[in-house]
Amino acid sequence: MSAPQTIAPLVVLGNTNPSLCPGLKCMVVWRWLLSASSVFTAAVVAVWPETLALILGTFVSEDLTCVSAGLLIQDRTLGWFPGVAGCLLGIYFGDLGLWLLGRIAGQRVLRWPWVRRRISAQRLERAGRCLDERGWIAIFAARFLPGTRLPLYLAAGMLGRNGGRFALWTLVAAAMWTPLLVGGVVLVSSEIVVPLQQGLGAGWVAVLVAAGMLFFTLRLARAVGNPQGRATMAARIARVWRWEFWPTWLFYLPVLPWIGWLMVRYRSLTVWTAANPGIPQGGVVGESKFDILTNLPAEWIVPSALLAPGEWHDRLHRFVEIKRDRGWVFPLILKPDVGQRGAGVKLARSMNDVAEYLKHQPDALIVQAYHPGPFEAGIFYVRIPGEPSGRIFSVTDKRFPELLGDGQSTLEQLIWAHPRFRMQAQTFLIRHEKDLDRVLARGESFRLAVAGNHCQGTMFLDGAHLITPELERRVDDMARHFDGFFFGRFDVRYSNVEAFKAGRDLAIVELNGVTSESTNIYDPGRSLLHGYGTLYRQWSLLFRIGDANRRLGQRPASLGELLKSVSAHLLKKPTLALAD
Length: 580
Fold this sequence. Notes:
Blueprint: H1 3-7, H2 25-47, H3 50-58, H4 62-74, H5 80-105, H6 113-116, H7 121-134, H8 136-142, H9 149-158, H10 163-200, H11 204-223, H12 227-238, H13 248-251, H14 256-265, H15 289-293, E1 304-307, H16 312-326, E2 332-336, E3 346-348, H17 351-360, E4 365-369, E5 375-382, E6 391-399, E7 402-404, H18 411-417, H19 425-431, E8 445-447, E9 459-462, H20 469-480, E10 487-494, H21 497-501, E11 507-512, H22 528-551, H23 559-571
Antiparallel strand pairs: 1-4, 2-3, 2-4, 5-6, 5-10, 6-9, 7-8, 10-11
Helix pairs in contact: 2-5, 2-10, 3-5, 4-5, 4-10, 4-11, 5-9, 5-10, 7-9, 8-10, 10-11, 14-22
C-alpha cells in the first residue's frame, strides 16, 4: 500500500502535520495500538461476553464499573482476567475518544453544554501549557490526579499532540491504574459484603449496597486527594449551616406558608402586585430599569443612557455617540435593561470590551458612568399609601470581595484557601480565568467582583448603623418624587460614610420593585430566625400596601397576567449570566 493510501483513512485519527509529528511515526504507532487493542477486545469479548458490559459501563462511570467488577470477582461471579481486561479496555477507549474528540471538533467542543459546564477555553489553554512544560508525564499523571484528565486529554487532541505517544502513555497509565483499583476493591470488599449479607441476606441487595458504599468512598478519596478537592468538600459541608448560600428555592420554603396566609387574609392571590402602581405589575419581573430611573430625581441617580436593541454595528455607533455627547470616559458600566440578580453587569474599560459585550447581548442595555464608590448599600424603603412620609425598612452594607496576595500563591490558590470565597469559587474562577495563574505580590489587593450582588460574590451585612433621620428624609424625598412608588430597594453607591449618613452623598444605581429583598437578611452574623422574621415583616408590609392601593382604585395584576410574565422571564435565560 502506498503512503497516500495508508494516510487517507487515518486523517481523522491522527496528526499528519510533519512539524507536529515528524514523518509518519506517530500515525504508525497510533494505528498499530488501535488495531491491536481492537483485535484484543474482539478476542476478549468472544471468550468472555460479559466484558462487553464492563467496557460500555466505563463510558458511564469508570469508578462505578471498576467497583462492580471488583465485587463480582470477589463473589467469584467474574474471573480476574475478564474483569480487569473489560475495565481496562473501556477506560483506554474512553481516553482515546477524548483525544479524538479534541482533534476532530477543536474549539467547537467548547460550545457543547456538557463540556462547557466542566471546562473553559482558559482551562484548556492552561492544560496546553502543562503539556508544553511537562510533556507526556502530564498525560500519564492525569490518570491519577482528579479533575485533570478531561482538559488535558482534550487539549492534547486540540493542540495536535503526537497521537501515537498519547495512545502509548494512556495505555501505560490505564494498565497501572485499573488493576490497582479493581484489586483494591477485591481486597476490601469481603470486609464490607459479609457484614451486609448477614444483615440484608445473601442476595444482590447486599452487593448493591456494598457497591454504593465503595463507590462513595472512592469518590470521597478522589475529592480529598488534592488541596482543591479538600477545599471543595469543606465548602459543600459548610453550606449545611451557612444558609446564606442555600439555593433560593430551599431558603424560601418556610416563607411560602406565610405568603399563603397573607393571600387568604387579603382575599387575593395577586393584591401585592398593586403595591407600586408606577411600575408594571409592581416590579415583579421584566420591568425596564431605565424607565424606573427616569422617574427619580436626575441629580441623585448615576448618569445613565439607554442603548436600544438593533444591529451590532448600529449599536456600537450609538454607544460612541452616547459616550461623546455625555463626555464620559472609560471605565463604563454596561448591563441589561431587564435584569435580575446582577446578571450580565460588565465593567467596560475599552472599546474592545464594549464591542465584545454587544456581540453577546442583543437586548436593550443601560450604559452608566462608573461610580467608583468605594461603598455600596441597599436601602429598602416602604411607605403606606395615605401616610405623609415613608421610612427606611433596612439598609444592607455591601462588602466587595477582595484578596490579598502573599507573594507565593496564585489567584486560584488564594480563592480556594479563603473560607468564604471558596463557597462561590466557581463564580470567581470563571470570572477571572485569565488571571488564575497570576501570583499576587505580598499585600497586593485583587478585587473579585464589581457588581454588588450576593450571588455574584458580594457579602451583605446589616447596615442598621447607617440609618439616620437625615438619610431617611433624603430617601423619602427621592421616593416621593416617583409617583406610584411605595415599596422597594434602592441600590446606591457613595464615597464618604458620614456624608452618606447625612443624606448628602449617594447615587442611585437602580431601583427594584416588589420582588426585591431586604438583603440584610444574608448577614452571616445574623441568625436564620432573624432572616425569616425580616422576610415575614417585609411580605406583610407588601400585602398591606397592595391592599391599600387596591382600596384607592388600583387594579392588581390578574393571576393569568402574572403567570405569563413570570413564565416568559423564566424561559428567557440571560445571555450573559455572570457579572464582573
